[in-house]
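Give me the fold.
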Amino acid sequence: MSLARKISQVFGDFTMHDGVIVLTYHRVNDRLPKGQLVVHPSDFKRQMGFLSFYRRRFEVIGVGEMIEWMRDLRDTVCRRTATHGVARTKIVISFDDGYRDNYIHAFPVLKKYKFPAVISLTTDYIGSEHKNERYKNLPWKRDYLNKDEIREMMDNGISFGVHTATHPHLTEISQEEAESQIVKSRETCRASLNLPYKFLPFCYPYGDYNEKIKEMVRKAGFKCAFSVKPGINYKGQDLFEIKRIDVTGEDSFASFKYKLTEKYVGHKDTKTQGHKV
């Protein structure tokens, strides 16, 4: 990037998109090494601070606002698509799996900036001592959010969606098992958490789905589904193939800004898959 471009960005001269960027996080943790699935809390704070500082360029919205905007119900949501005549890129902040460190490290930052976000829960693991294989040697017992933490976050602007019951590859199990994973996880959210259904999102584990899985998700009452396809979301596209952009511990601050502003310009139909986790 040229020096002139760097200087212009200091004053908020970024490339804006007439669409929605969904950022994907997994863990926000200071006791695990940075990697594809782990962002250090200090990096997360800096990234959210960037979005807050340039509020005249970026509008952080909730998943419900995203759905209504993509359905072209602009009159009811996202009225402030521009500030002083300057267009703003709409941002949705998402987390996969439902790790407890989202509550410990990410939630205070989101509260500070009054940013909404959406967390996709692996529902059988809520409050449990289950360990993902890659984290089996962690010193703490509980790695997932419990009901009290989820309710506190809900009371402070965080919404929740569903990531199945146990996070399987949905296309690699029987249709009956896949449907059970989808429906069971939805019912857990209804019975145990009383999650609102108006904008309840689903998230495909590993980004693994096909047309049959999409139809199961629709029939189960979900309003959209997150994929791992990278890119920007536009009006009229399939709500059950929402694109997202990974934020990883391997991202520098410059690469984070690049993903938000430059990287996906003009790429509406990208087929490249992101991290399948």
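DSSP finds eight helices and twelve strands in the chain.
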